[in-house]
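Justification of resources, computational component.

The compute hours requested in this renewal are based largely on the per-chain cost of generating structure records like the one below. Each record pairs the submitted sequence with a full structure-token output. That output is archived, and it is also reused by downstream analysis tasks.
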Amino acid sequence: MRYILSLLFALIVSPITLSAQNCKAVEGKTAYSFWLHTPEVKSDEMQPIFVFLHGRSLCGKNLDRVKRYGVLYAMGRGQEVPGFVVAPQTQGGWDAKKVMETVDYVLKNYPQADESRIYICGMSLGGYGTMEVAGKFPDRIAAAVAICGGGCLSDANNLAQVPIWLIHGTADRIVPISESKKIYNAVRKSNPNAEIMLDAVKGGTHGSVEKFFHKSDIYNWLLEHRKAKS
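The structure output for this chain reads:
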């Protein structure tokens, strides 16, 4: 509760400062409306795509809500994320095909978007959505980070094909850490050599683990991975 109150206070006194020039709302083009942040590219260098999936509290039809925490919120407070950033909004659960439709929009309209470096991350409901997308499109997702979420155990074989980093607080009372442990164990059972790790944040609550979006660690780790071209 203390973390949530401090987060709300920060939103009031320190509004998002994302450049309107580089961050625009895309509505009516795909099933999900989404924010698209484009990198300042001065050459023909290909750029990765980072997808952020929000939690249940940000569901709805007001796209501005998606900036209240996570990747866009962190960027507004100074965190650098080198590449395209796609932040869709859902009204309920996440649909993997609809998420990838937003990615395909970027690939179609921005020649410098790199299809071999599509990264997905999410929190809470978005953590489940992250595992849903990686599980349904293991041939396209280069790496995934799921924070305080879980996943469908039947997707374990496909998830074993994607480098995955799970992060979960041990004191989470909204989504217990057992949810991340279940999917971690299922993937390990499917393939003992799968590249998957689980960070149990001692004393971490459902809200406090949002801090990981404000650190470079997860973005640097994602960038270490690239999907081989078929």
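The radius of gyration is 16 Å. The chain has a mean pLDDT of 91.
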